[in-house]
Specification:
It is a single chain. The chain is built from 12 helices and 9 strands. By secondary structure, it is of the alpha+beta class. The protein folds into 2 domains: 171 residues, Trigger factor, domain 2; 94 residues, Chitinase A, domain 3 (Roll). Helix 6 packs across helix 7 and helix 6 crosses helix 8.
Length: 364
C-alpha cells in the first residue's frame, strides 16, 4: 500500500513529512521552548510571486487520450484470445511447468495454470524467450540454464529441463479511440463530453501544480527572510532518530537491514546517509520553528472540527471513502498509521502556508 500524499517512497518526501512530527508546541498554544530564543521572523506578509496563465491545448488533450489508450492495452475487454497464432513477446499465457535438474524435480520448479507475460522477466533467461513461436496446447521440453549468480546455490549455473504446457493465452490490444472506448472506460456517452472532462482534469492538474509552485516559492522566501538563532536542545537529534526508526522498520518489510536498504534505494552509504539525516533534521527544525512562530504571531490554530474535516478530506485525496475503507486495507486507522499529532501539525502547516499565500502580492 502506498499513501500518496502523506507518505511516499522518496527520501525528500519521507523526511519532509517529519516536519509535522516535532514536539515544540501543543495545540493549547503552550510551547516547550521559547520560540523567540531560537527564531526571528522576517517578512512573511506582502511577499511577491509571479503567476502564469493556465491553459490546456488540443495537443495536450490528445496526448492524454493517447496515454489512456496505451494504459488500457491488455486490460479487460482489450485483448484477444490466442487460437492458432504463435506466441509472441507480450502475450499473456496460462502454463503448466515442471523443471528438473539431472532428471530430478527441484523445489519451486513446478506450477499449474501459472499466468506468465512473455518478456516480463519472471523466469530465468531463456525460459520466456523459448516459448516464442509455440502454440496453444503445445507441450514440449525447454532446455535452459540457471545463471551462475542465481540465489539458490544448489541451482546456480546448473542446466535444467522444463516440461511446459501452454493451456491458453491472450494478446494485449491497444484500443482505438472512439465511442466504444469511451463508454467502456467511463460514464460519458459522447466523445464531446469525454474530451471536455479530460480537458477539465488537465486544467485542474495544472491549477494544482501552479498553486504548489506558488506555495513553495513563497515559503522559501519566508525561510530566507527568517533568522535562525539556535536550536532547542535535542530537537534535531529527535527528528533524525524518528527518520532512522522509520527507515529501519521500512527496511524490515523488505527483509533488509537499514544500511542495505539505503544503499539499494537511495545509493548512499552509511556515512553519507547519516550526514544527510543530520542536515535534513536541522532543516526540519528550522522550518518547524518558523511555522510555529507565524502561527503564534497571527493566532493561527487548529480546532477539533477543522482537524476532523481535514482528516476526511485527506482520506478522500488518498482514494479512500473513509476510515473503515482505509482500515480494511491497512489493518489500522489512518490516525494510527500516520499519527494523530503528525496529522494535526501537518494541517497546521497547511493553514500557515495558506495564510502566507492569501497575504502575498502578485507581481504586476
Amino acid at each position: 500500500m502506498m499513501i500518496k500524499k502523506i507518505i511516499g517512497l522518496t527520501l525528500a518526501a519521507l523526511l519532509t513529512f517529519s516536519l509535522a512530527a516535532c514536539g515544540g508546541k501543543d495545540f493549547a498554544g503552550n510551547y516547550k521552548y521559547k520560540l523567540e530564543d531560537y527564531v526571528k521572523l522576517g517578512e512573511y506578509k506582502g511577499l511577491e510571486y509571479q503567476d502564469s496563465a493556465i491553459a490546456v491545448t488540443d495537443q495536450e488533450i490528445q496526448a492524454e487520450i493517447d496515454n489512456r489508450l496505451a494504459a488500457a492495452k491488455g486490460t479487460e475487454g482489450f485483448n484477444t484470445e490466442l487460437k492458432d497464432e504463435t506466441v509472441e513477446n507480450g502475450d499473456v499465457l496460462s502454463i503448466d511447468f515442471l523443471g528438473k535438474v539431472d532428471g530430478v524435480a527441484f523445489e519451486g520448479g513446478a506450477g499449474e495454470d501459472y499466468s506468465l507475460t512473455i518478456g516480463s522477466g519472471q523466469f530465468i533467461p531463456g525460459f520466456e524467450e523459448g516459448l516464442i513461436g509455440w502454440k496453444i496446447g503445445d507441450k514440449k521440453d525447454l532446455n535452459v540454464a540457471f545463471p551462475a549468480d542465481y540465489g539458490s546455490p544448489e541451482l546456480a549455473g546448473k542446466d535444467a529441463v522444463f516440461t511446459v504446457t501452454i493451456n491458453s493465452g491472450t494478446r494485449p490490444v491497444t484500443p482505438e479511440y472512439g465511442l466504444d472506448f469511451v463508454t467502456a472506460t467511463s460514464e460519458f456517452k459522447s466523445l464531446e463530453e469525454y474530451e471536455a472532462a479530460v480537458k477539465e482534469e488537465l486544467l485542474q492538474k495544472k491549477t494544482d501544480e501552479a498553486l504548489a509552485l506558488k506555495q513553495n516559492t513563497l515559503w522559501n522566501q519566508v525561510m530566507e527572510n527568517a533568522e535562525i538563532l539556535g536550536y532547542p536542545e535535542g530537537e534535531a537529534d529527535a527528528r533524525k532518530q524518528e527518520n532512522i526508526d522509520y527507515y529501519t522498520n521500512y527496511a524490515k518489510q523488505y527483509g533488509m537491514d537499514l544500511n542495505a536498504f539505503v544503499t539499494a534505494y537511495f545509493g548512499m552509504d552509511e556515512a553519507s546517509f547519516s550526514e544527510y539525516l543530520d542536515m535534513y533534521a536541522q532543516t526540519i527544525v528550522e522550518q518547524e520553528m518558523v511555522m510555529y512562530a507565524i502561527a503564534k504571531a497571527e493566532g493561527i490554530s487548529l480546532s477539533d472540527k477543522e482537524y476532523k474535516d481535514l482528516l476526511v478530506l485527506t482520506l478522500k485525496e488518498q482514494g479512500f471513502s473513509g476510515e473503515d475503507a482505509f482500515k480494511s486495507q491497512s489493518g489500522m486507522s489512518f490516525e494510527e498509521y500516520a499519527g494523530k499529532e503528525n496529522l494535526q501539525k501537518t494541517f497546521l502547516l497547511e493553514k500557515v502556508i495558506n495564510f502566507i499565500v492569501e497575504n502575498a502580492v502578485e507581481k504586476a
